[in-house]
């Protein structure tokens, strides 16, 4: 009810009916409508249709034009070039459509829900227990969170799964060490910070590692611990749980810094599938999908070979009976498909794990767990690079701690905010600094397509000029300040007013928010939304340069321009929210 048909969908429908009236066999054909510099929209679809019908494209185009109903929406349509259609929209329709979006009391700006929403299980934000988080975990969290927002906005039922690394042989060593030094994870205080939790874990990890590497007897005890853990020994499990709990304190502190909601109930780590592993193997072996090879349970693929030309199998169970990463992921697929009833499984994981997922998905397809109706996709992301274009490392060649990076981004952003701040208190500067700094990090990640590598360059990220979140946040805050300055005068649409070019360009772009969101959601491509928002801010800037708002010629024009400002602000606000980025009212 509150959903608004966009001008482009509206024109599309007009053209489609004109087309089928002219050429009945063209019913359902796509007129290929785009935004254009020459007119408001251009349709190129007639060329291909004419070719198929063996007709002259210009003549066909002229016939179609005579069938197009002009008036309230389409002001003018003409043939151009070899048979394109140039379409001009009535000013009234632009303002009218935006007014309908503005009136949407749900705050969705008239964006419709998907017609047939499904269930997507999304696997993202999956750090590893007892380990520091790094930039790769940042990417999974930031991209995943935005895709969750986008999908939920279109009405998709989204189930989040944080597949944390909480299982494996390394726990034998850690648990054994903790058992021998029982106070290593004790806290002085009831309130433990994430920082403290991580430094406890780090200290313990290093000490355990050292002992493991230098003390053969400890090594033996640690290995025995792995067996106890897998056998479900109560005391061993309780100690393992302490590592998980301590790590969660740390994870949650990082996610909070990232201004991201991660729910405990959605954390289902590798250990969560332990009970399914044996059955997964049995099903694969009985169906012949997996075979025993040198004692290990393997799946082979014709097209996956190692450097020596020999096939590289997916190992589901090792020859010593142990289960690894693949068995867990295959079990997780069964859980997500059969228990969570997913139609789509989405994995926001580093591109370097692409081969693993290719093999896992293919195995699941052979087993019949995935098929045409239930699909799995890896939303693979590229590597974060340093300024030198090499994978991001500290000067000492170590992986950079994510927390340090985030703190630095917040510091830089606070400096920018402080410099520009006019009437902000210290407390406000700190709050905005965090929103701007975290926004900058998220935006830099989301504004390039996920599969590409990108350079982590804080100077560029917090720059006020260019394609940054700060630029967008300032555009939003500037609009809020204009709306405040307008005082008694409220924004109001006046569809009867003629629009200036800059107003039309802004208005037409604002109207296409719904299409952008639809596309970004179906393609899992937040960068398309980011590019759209940057364009909103740029078009707004030229509108603001050319069209006085509070000093416009007539009171109606002042109201109408304030209205354009407000629709711009709401679009920026909603769009940024879908990227997980805040838009402070004042900057
Ligand atoms: N914990 C893994 C890592 O840090 C990512 C897990 C990805 N998800 C999955 N279902 N395998 O690399």
Automatic annotation (TrEMBL):
It is found in: Cytoplasm. GO terms for molecular function: ligase activity. Keywords: Aminoacyl-tRNA synthetase, ATP-binding, Cytoplasm, Ligase, Nucleotide-binding, Protein biosynthesis. A motif ('HIGH' region) lies at residues 127-137. It is an enzyme of class 6 (ligase). The keyword ATP-binding applies. Its EC number is 6.1.1.19. Coiled coil: none annotated. Residues 472-587 form the DALR anticodon binding domain. It catalyses: tRNA(Arg) + L-arginine + ATP = L-arginyl-tRNA(Arg) + AMP + diphosphate. Monomer. This is Arginine--tRNA ligase. It comes from Streptomyces canarius. The lineage of its organism: Bacteria, Bacillati, Actinomycetota, Actinomycetes, Kitasatosporales.
């Amino acid at each position: 009810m509150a959903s608004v048909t966009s001008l482009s969908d509206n024109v599309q429908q007009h053209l489609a009916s004109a087309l089928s009236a002219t050429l009945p066999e063209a019913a359902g054909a796509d007129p290929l409508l785009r935004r254009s510099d020459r007119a408001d929209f251009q349709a190129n679809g007639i060329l291909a249709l004419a070719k198929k019908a063996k007709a002259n494209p210009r003549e066909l185009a002229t016939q179609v034009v005579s069938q197009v109903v002009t008036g309230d929406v389409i002001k003018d349509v003409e043939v151009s070039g070899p048979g394109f259609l140039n379409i001009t929209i009535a000013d009234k329709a632009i303002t009218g459509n935006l007014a309908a979006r503005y009136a949407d009391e749900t705050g969705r700006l008239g964006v419709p829900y998907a017609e047939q929403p499904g269930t997507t299980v999304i696997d993202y934000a999956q750090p590893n227990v007892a380990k520091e988080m790094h930039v790769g975990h940042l990417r999974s969290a930031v991209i995943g969170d935005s895709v969750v927002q986008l999908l939920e906005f279109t009405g998709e039922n989204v189930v989040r799964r944080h597949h944390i690394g909480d299982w494996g042989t390394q726990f034998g060593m850690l648990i054994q060490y903790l058992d021998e030094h029982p106070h290593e994870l004790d806290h002085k205080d009831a309130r433990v910070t994430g920082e403290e939790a991580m430094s406890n874990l780090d200290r313990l990890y290093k000490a355990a590692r050292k002992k493991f590497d230098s003390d053969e007897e400890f090594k033996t005890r640690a290995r025995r611990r792995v067996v106890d853990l897998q056998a479900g020994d109560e005391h061993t499990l309780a100690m393992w749980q302490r590592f998980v709990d301590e790590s969660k304190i740390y994870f949650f502190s990082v996610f909070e810094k990232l201004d991201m909601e991660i729910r405990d109930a959605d954390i289902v780590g590798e250990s969560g599938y332990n009970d399914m592993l044996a059955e997964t193997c049995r099903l694969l072996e009985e169906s012949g999908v997996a075979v025993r090879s040198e004692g290990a349970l393997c799946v082979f693929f014709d097209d996956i070979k190692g450097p020596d030309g020999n096939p590289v199998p997916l190992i589901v169970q090792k020859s010593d009976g142990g289960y690894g990463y693949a068995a867990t992921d295959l079990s997780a697929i069964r859980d997500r498909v059969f228990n969570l009833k997913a139609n789509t499984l989405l994995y926001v994981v580093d591109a370097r794990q692409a081969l693993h997922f290719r093999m896992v998905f293919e195995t699941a397809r052979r087993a019949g767990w995935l098929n045409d109706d239930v699909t799995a996709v890896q939303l693979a992301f590229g590597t974060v690079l340093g300024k030198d274009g090499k994978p991001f490392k500290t000067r000492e060649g170590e992986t950079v701690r994510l927390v340090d990076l985030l703190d630095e981004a917040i510091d830089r952003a606070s400096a920018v905010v402080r410099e520009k701040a006019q009437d902000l208190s210290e407390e406000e500067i700190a709050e905005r600094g965090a929103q701007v700094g975290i926004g900058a990090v998220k935006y830099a990640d989301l504004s390039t397509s996920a599969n590409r590598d990108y350079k982590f360059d804080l100077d560029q990220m917090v720059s006020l000029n260019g394609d940054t979140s700060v630029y967008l946040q300032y555009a939003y805050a500037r609009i809020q300040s204009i709306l405040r300055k307008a005082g008694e005068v409220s924004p109001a649409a006046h569809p009867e007013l003629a629009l200036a070019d800059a107003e039309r360009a802004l208005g037409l772009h604002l109207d296409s928010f719904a299409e952008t969101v639809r596309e970004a959601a179906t393609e899992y491509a937040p960068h398309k939304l980011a590019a759209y928002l940057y364009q909103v801010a740029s078009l707004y800037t030229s509108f603001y340069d050319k069209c006085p708002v509070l000093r416009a010629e007539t009171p109606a024009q002042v109201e109408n321009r304030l209205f354009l400002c407000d629709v711009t602000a709401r679009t920026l606000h909603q769009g940024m929210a879908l990227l997980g980025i805040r838009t402070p009212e004042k900057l």
